[in-house]
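DM from R.C. (forwarded with permission)

"hey, sorry to bug you on a friday — could you get me a structure for this? deadline for the figure draft is monday and I only need the backbone to look sensible"
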Amino acid sequence: MTFEDAGPPAAPPPAGPKKSLRANTLIVMLGTLGSRLSGIIRQQIINTFAPALTDAFLVAVRVPNLLRELLAEGALVNSFIPVYKTLDAQGRRELAQAFSGLLIAVNLLLMAAGIFAAPWIVDLLLGSDPNVDRELTLFMTRMLMPFLMLISLSAIAMGLLNADEHFRESSFAPVAFNIASIAALLILPNTATWLAFGWLIGGVAQLVVQLPALNRFGLLPTPNLKGHPAVGRVLKQMAPFTLTAGARQFLNVYVISLLSNAKQFPTGTQTGYSNAEALFTMVNGLFVVSPVLAVFPRFSQAAAEKDWPQFRALTASTIRTTTFLAAPMSALLLALAPFAMSLINLEAPVGKDDLNKFTAGTGILLGWSLALVPWALVTVLLRTFYARERTREAVTISAIGFVLEVGLYRLLVPGLGLIGFGLSTTISGLLMTAALIVLYRRAVGFPAREVTGHLLRVVPLAAVSGGAAWLIARAVPIEPGFILTSIPVLALAGGVGLAVYLGGALALKLPEVAAVTRRLKR
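My reply, with the result:
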């Protein structure tokens, strides 16, 4: 079944009852958990390759990833869904056909341009004195460019399903990507060619698993280039979003160039950064992005109906939920970063490059742990602007924030080392949060008292739980570095920390933990 030969039925199936927001959140969180856990397994297998090979691969895969957010995942979710939700069934079908056709055409052009311009792109990323093999990076960059098309088609499918609150298939699609990639890594030869090819196999799997659901719900589009009046509205939304995505990619390019500088960092640093990124995105995706993704269609609906009391209530409840979950995770990552990084290592570090990789990952994860709560606030607030189609304000703040983060990297990383990455992200996140709250309050009135009161309780409580976990980890005579010896430490120290946090939340009568308790009693 393909997009070309399987269009939607003549009439869409009748709409079912409005789905439970709690059920949607749980589905997305389970899908994210499956995706992140399988992603950790994939990262563990990649880490069995030589650091020189994985450094080159991880730079190469960044190239299509630099473009995917500009054209696919971020732009589609934040620009397409609010417009899509305002149309009737026929208008939605026509918009999906026109928009998917346009996106495919643009991706084909960019894929060809990326393959042709790969030498210049790689030189831009690596700089003049790289600790990464340039020729190997160039070879894998060209092999991986078709991934941009695969992930863009997958993003179209995911956006259509999420817009109608069909979260199950779209949430578990990344699991299919990881499973297919893991199978390829285990079965195919241990070479650069098959390492890159395994990534493409995963991209195919992520797209294919969503097609049956699109067809079943009458959402599978037949792409065309006929155009649709609403495409202009989507493009208008995407245009300023491209500004913030471009700023973020400027940040990513700078980070790649910085990490690959042999004068400042040794071989293995690039892979250590990717390992820290895998762990951090697992936590952030599960406890921050998932709840926000599940509630985003409700934000869009409330904005379309101009139900601002409901919109403010959704804002407050979503901030409370995400920060209630993010705060203890931030504290536990800060307290247990070396043991958390050990989850990547199927073997204890042996040799200089392996030790460099582990040290780099630990330092970066330690700094990023501080950024989890500020970026939870940014994640929620940005979606409230996209839902109201106030994209220009949101992306301007985001773009300024990312440019500021690059400046902070230049200021802090040389003196503080790897932890400077996380501190820069934390500072920029706090400043972006403040700016977004000011703009939000001017437009619809921000629920400041409720949010502030909640944060003044959960953040200190999380700090206490992190301190308890740190003391337990120090008392255990086990050194970090190997997964099998680190899991018991994480289970014991992390369990104590979570128990302290939940016990304090019960004592403070926080409604979030009370809701969890009620569900457990059912």
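R.C.: lifesaver. Residues 8 and 218 are 5 Å apart (CA to CA).
me: no worries. The chain is about 80% helix and 0% strand.
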